[in-house]
Amino acid sequence: MDLGIAGRRAAVAASTRGLGFATAQALAAAGVQVAICGRQRDSVEQAAARIGAAAMPIVADVSTPEGATRFVEGAERVLGGIDILVVNVPGTPAGTFASTALEEYGPALQNHVLSGVAMCKAAVPGMQARGWGRVVAITSVGVRQPFPDLILSNTGRSGLTAFLKTLALEVAPDGVTVNSVQPGLHRTERLESWAGDRLPDMAAEVPAKAVGEPADLGAVVAFLCSEPARYVTGTAVPVDGGLYRGLL
């Protein structure tokens, strides 16, 4: 399927591995120039080499609004502009209500919400001016069906989802779409670290009876960035093998 985005320019945050890397790969395969980022120069350069000539490596820490802004500004410089923004941030520590201190919420909200807002602030006005743009955030199915032991992630990603829905309504007349994807259990280093020996049992509870691959999510993000998806905005799409059981 021709996604109609060859030659477009994308900034994909937190993209040296896992879901961010798979998304950058999918966009590059569709002919998009991609700026990727990571905290360590060697890891981001290795990731760019794996993707190929379409990838531009940038060293940036997007867990803070300042770092997120610097990443987008750097991507604009190396690409000459940004048509597609993929909002993605590092995960926050596991914990329950009882085990998580009040002081931990501030950094988590900065990471999950304010960093995403900062990226949009830096990238979306240019999209509006050009009359075309795509914003897709990688959040979590925990927004719909909270995961136990991940209270910071459940809370922060829900706040970002509310921001994105509001932004989508404001910028739709300008040719800019804003959506999010909600991964469930995908085979990443973070999932394997968090789940540990529980992973086989958790996979058995998924209706698809399997853990997803990062590429499964990357393909959906690439579609939401496409021309055929031009009339899709304000959505939050679970990509979870049926893990979320709700009707809405």
Topology:
Elements: E1 9-12, H1 18-29, E2 33-38, H2 41-51, E3 55-59, H3 65-79, E4 84-87, H4 105-130, E5 133-138, H5 151-171, E6 176-183, H6 189-195, H7 199-204, H8 214-224, E7 236-239
Helix pairs in contact: 1-8, 3-4, 4-5
Task: Tell me what you see in this structure.
- The protein has one domain (9-238): Rossmann fold.
- It has 8 helices and 7 strands.
- The chain has helices at 18-29, 41-51, 65-79, 105-130, 151-171, 189-195, 199-204, 214-224; strands spanning 9-12, 33-38, 55-59, 84-87, 133-138, 176-183, 236-239.
- β4 (84-87), α4 and β5 form a beta-alpha-beta unit.
- The longest helix is centred in the middle third of the chain and has 26 residues, at 105-130.
- InterPro entries: NAD(P)-bd_dom_sf, SDR, SDR_fam.
Characteristic key phrases:
SDR_fam, seven-stranded parallel beta sheet, NAD(P)-bd_dom_sf, 8 helices, alpha/beta
Radius of gyration: 17 Å
Oligomer: single chain
- CATH hierarchy class name: Alpha Beta
Q: Count helical runs.
A: 8
Total number of distinct structural domains: 1
Q: Percent range for helical residues? A: 40-55%
Structural class: alpha/beta
Q: Total number of β-strand segments?
A: 7
> What percent of residues are in strands?
5-15%
Question: Which strand order spans the largest sheet, edge to edge or round the barrel?
Answer: 3-2-1-4-5-6-7
CATH topology group: Rossmann fold
Largest sheet: 7 strands, parallel
Family: Belongs to the short-chain dehydrogenases/reductases (SDR) family.
InterPro entries: NAD(P)-bd_dom_sf, SDR, SDR_fam
Protein name: 3-oxoacyl-[acyl-carrier protein] reductase
Organism: Blastococcus tunisiensis
